[in-house]
Amino acid sequence: MFSRRSLCTFALTAVALVLPARLASAQDAPKIATVNTAKVFNEMLETKDLKQKMDSDGAAIKAEGERRKADLEDAQKKRALFNEGTADFEKANRELIEKAVAMQAWQELIKQDMLRQQKVQMRNLFIKIEEATKEVADAKKLDLVFVDQKIELNLDAKTMEQINADQLRSLINQRTIMYNNGRLDITNDVLAAVDAKYKARK
Length: 202
Known about the structure:
Blueprint: H1 4-28, E1 32-35, H2 37-43, H3 45-80, H4 87-139, E2 144-147, H5 157-162, H6 165-173, H7 187-201
Parallel strand pairs: 1-2
Helix pairs in contact: 2-7, 3-4, 4-7
């Protein structure tokens, strides 16, 4: 028979042997977090400043478009003053065509330039979010950071009638995280890091 003292000694020895293994196991477990890149992208200061600049540029482009349109209408009115087949008509018609072609070329140039700027800005902002995520992860000694898309699937009856099964499947497949209680979320940390760097550059 074991005495009570012997049993206590045995139990403590067993715990001493198991405890380090459990601690080692806990320390070896990967440290994981999530970041909502869409939220960071939409709320970062640089995105807001770029949107404000785009709105300002858009207003200037709209004004220039209205000016060109009025100029084109004036050329049409000028051509209407002459009889078709006369030298004056032919001259006015040529001016009208030149203005119409120039306007089309200008519109296409603006369209392509805006698309290029949008892609470049989107790429650059994502790179900055990626770098900030790495910095936050390194500071918190994280091993892995998942992107949490937060795609909402609370579709009402009217919306469900308007989308087909493939569209619904696509929405479901965009969900990257099934559940997140927020304890492991570093979105606000990444947002703060991105904004701090942006302020330092301004």
